[in-house]
TrEMBL record:
Keywords: DNA synthesis, Nucleotide-binding
UniProt family annotation: Belongs to the ribonucleoside diphosphate reductase class-2 family.
Stretches assigned to the TSCPD domain: 4-78
Name this polypeptide is given: ribonucleoside-diphosphate reductase
Organism this protein belongs to: Xiamenia xianingshaonis
Length: 83
């Protein structure tokens, strides 16, 4: 599991497991519990590139990022570490 420290959002960190470019597991610490559990379930089994195409650049209110956008950053970082 790779742990990513989030920036600019309510969640404090995101633990992700990526294998061969596919999301195996996602767990948010903090943030909107129900929504983030749902996002985690929806992206499980998806390719990182597909998750990025859907969620990268998503914002939350006046913020320039969101938990979904931070998830993409976490997945990209985990991919880089795996390589």
């Amino acid at each position: 599991m790779h742990v990513y420290k989030t920036r600019g959002v309510c969640s404090r960190s995101i633990a992700v497991d990526v294998k061969d470019g596919v999301v195996n597991e996602v767990a948010f610490e903090g943030g909107c519990d129900g929504n983030l559990k749902a996002v985690s379930k929806l992206v499980r089994g998806m390719k990182v590139d597909d998750v990025a195409a859907l969620l990268e650049g998503n914002t939350c209110g006046p913020r320039s990022t969101s938990c979904a956008d931070q998830l993409v950053r976490a997945l990209r970082e985990a991919e880089a570490v795996e390589a």
